[in-house]
Specification:
- It contains eight helices and ten strands.
- By secondary structure, the protein is of the alpha+beta class.
- It folds into two domains: 79 residues, Arc Repressor Mutant, subunit A; 159 residues, Chorismate lyase-like (Chorismate lyase, 3-Layer(aba) Sandwich).
- The strands form three sheets. The protein has a six-stranded antiparallel beta sheet with strand order 4-5-6-9-8-7. A two-stranded antiparallel sheet has the order 1-2. It has a two-stranded parallel ribbon with strand order 3-10.
- The longest helix has 14 residues.
- It is elongated, with a radius of gyration of 21 Å.
- The relative contact order is 0.12.
């Protein structure tokens, strides 16, 4: 039975054609994992497609839910299934490569991959900048900044915490904008007429603290990518400094290097 050809078409267990070999030395859960990996590798499962539930697969294969649950957790750890509490699993594409050759906002990048981005505003405040922020944005003494902290999710699964620092003299009243329904980059360009030109990024790694782990629904001590980014407009004015904490089990960094003679 052919699989759906688009991510919007419904997926059934019958269309997956999963099987279990009771005589194999390979554990049941790994048999399921291997078959799903192969379907994704051959592009027979589409990124963003709603997947079957644990119960549906267990019933179809006539096995308990335990090995299916183990398979789902393994596929989730590899980024091949996106699983959010209370929602059906969604087919992923593996760990998302974060490409630093293109200046794209989070929402734009996720939509380009066929995924559904969302944001939840954790906090928004007008405050005095610390030295790191003031230097990055090249602020003069006395200038204030807006600090917006957002949780970014993909298909309902939390993947990143992004804290943006914005000069108040440039983005007056931005705290009145809807940062949950609108892209920050879109607001910058459309509401404030700032054309984004380039960005400088510094990539590091940290461990998730208790608060970050709770927000990102991962374990304390889990690896996180830390990206410090300064974004400039077409006039080479620094208009945003951001700190992004990305789940290490959901992202990798992709950089192209060219040798100069």
């Amino acid at each position: 039975m052919p699989l759906p050809t688009t991510a919007s078409e419904p997926l059934t267990v019958e269309k997956l054609s999963l099987t279990i070999d009771a005589d194999s030395f390979v554990p049941y859960y790994m048999q399921i994992v291997d078959q799903v990996r192969e379907l994704i590798k051959k592009n027979r499962l589409k990124q963003g497609q709603t997947f079957c539930s644990e119960g549906e697969i267990a019933t179809a294969l006539r096995i308990s839910k335990m090995p299916v649950r183990q398979a789902f957790q393994k596929l989730k750890s590899e980024g091949l299934l996106l699983i959010a509490k209370g929602k059906r699993p969604v087919v992923g594409s593996g760990r998302a490569p974060w490409n630093f050759q293109q200046l794209r906002g989070f929402s734009e990048e996720m939509r380009r991959r066929g995924l559904v981005p969302s944001a939840r505003l954790l906090s928004m405040s007008l405050e005095d900048p610390d030295l790191e922020v003031a230097q990055a944005l090249k602020l003069t003494p006395g200038e204030r900044i807006y600090r917006a902290r957002r949780l970014r999710s993909v298909n309902g699964e939390p993947v990143a915490i992004v804290t943006s620092y914005l000069p108040a003299r440039i983005f007056a009243g931005i705290d009145k904008q809807d940062l949950e329904k609108q892209s920050l980059y879109a607001i910058m360009e459309h509401s404030y007429k700032r054309r984004l030109q380039w960005a400088e990024e510094v990539i590091g790694a940290v461990s998730a603290g208790t608060e970050e782990a709770e927000v990102l629904q991962t374990s304390a001590g889990s690896p996180l990518l830390l990206i410090r980014e300064t974004t400039y407009d077409s006039q080479n004015v620094a208009i945003e400094y951001s700190l992004s904490l990305l789940r290490g089990d959901r992202h990798t960094a992709s950089v192209i290097s060219v040798r100069k003679n």
